[in-house]
Structure to design on (356 residues):
């Protein structure tokens, strides 16, 4: 039986997904594509589509703009794994996948999380050095402000709060270490013994109160959705900044807009939003104290080279009965192998076979 792979469509990720599908097809694998999501929304597949899209799928791939629900997983009797191309799996019901014995992999390559970490530090430096205003002085031929009106500050001596100590958050901490900033972090599930060097673990309220920069690097869960709400922002210093390269759902966007308008905080740099692409009428576009990038600030050539290779390797391993290279629920391996034992054997292309 030739393996079948479902791959979602996503206008913001098709530059990765389309060539990936072409490569899978060139190996002789069967590929089924999903419908296009409406821009600015997350696609929920209709149950009437389940049999056609997932009934014979051995692997399924989703993005942050298409949802993988329990009902969808239950409709896929042959499904061995969900393999997302990038880091985020917040649209996948990970708990349901684990209960059903379905392994979940992602594209957490070093090129992916290191690119995002470098970009986050770049945004922090842009904010504290007031680069946007400095550039306007030249572009608009304005006089240089006198020393008393200079807003740029050194990162040295600041307190940087890191929300989420996954791969990106940990790499940010490593990159910031030489700057001489105080590093504090809030990450409820982290083992205190595994903290990066020089990082102090604090609770969420303390981080919001003491940070000069709050960096958001969390994976979205029901517990932390809109964790940075109006109350949390009111705890911040008036001189503080927010940098979000995680997911827009981590922040109560209207509350942030209100705070930026009132100059309750100094500014923000946002690469991700509640609705993507960011609507043309979003009030964020009208603010002069926010840096906006279209969910691509960490997208490097290195990342684009690595993601398809990781996706292929994850799939190849799964189809050979091995855990994916980057796995989100490796703790269910035994249950996964029990599921595999009940599934029909696959006829893999010769180049995809891994010797036993």
């Amino acid at each position: 039986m030739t393996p079948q792979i479902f791959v979602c469509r996503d206008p913001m990720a098709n530059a990765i997904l389309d060539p990936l599908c072409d490569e899978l097809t060139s190996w002789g694998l069967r590929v089924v594509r999903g419908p296009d999501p409406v821009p600015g929304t997350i696609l929920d597949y209709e149950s009437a589509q389940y049999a056609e899209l997932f009934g014979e799928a051995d692997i399924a791939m989703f993005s942050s703009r298409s949802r993988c629900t329990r009902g969808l997983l239950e409709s896929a009797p042959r499904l061995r794994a969900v393999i997302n191309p990038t880091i985020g799996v917040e649209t996948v019901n990970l708990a349901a996948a684990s209960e059903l014995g379905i392994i979940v992999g992602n594209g957490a390559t070093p090129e992916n999380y290191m690119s995002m970490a470098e970009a986050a530090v770049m945004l922090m430096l842009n904010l504290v050095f007031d680069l946007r205003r400095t550039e306007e002085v030249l572009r608009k031929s304005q006089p240089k402000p006198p020393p008393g009106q200079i807003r740029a500050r050194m990162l040295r001596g600041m307190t940087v709060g890191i929300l989420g100590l996954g791969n990106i958050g940990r790499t940010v901490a490593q990159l910031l270490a030489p700057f001489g900033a105080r590093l504090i972090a809030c990450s409820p599930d982290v083992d205190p013994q595994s903290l990066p060097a020089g990082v102090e673990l604090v609770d969420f309220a303390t981080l919001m109160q003491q940070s000069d920069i709050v960096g958001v690097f969390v994976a979205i869960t029901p517990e932390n959705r809109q964790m940075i709400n109006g109350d949390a922002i009111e705890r911040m210093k008036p001189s503080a900044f927010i940098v979000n390269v995680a997911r827009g759902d981590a922040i109560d966007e209207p509350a942030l807009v209100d705070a930026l308008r009132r100059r309750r905080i100094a500014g923000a740099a946002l690469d991700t939003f509640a609705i993507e692409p960011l609507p043309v009428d979003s009030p964020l576009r009208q603010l002069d104290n926010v840096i906006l990038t279209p969910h691509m600030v960490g997208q490097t050539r290195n990342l684009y080279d690595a993601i398809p290779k990781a996706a292929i390797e994850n799939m190849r391993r799964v189809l050979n009965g091995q855990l994916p290279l980057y796995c989100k629920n490796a703790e269910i391996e035994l249950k996964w192998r029990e599921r595999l034992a009940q599934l029909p054997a696959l006829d893999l292309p010769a180049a995809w076979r891994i010797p036993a």
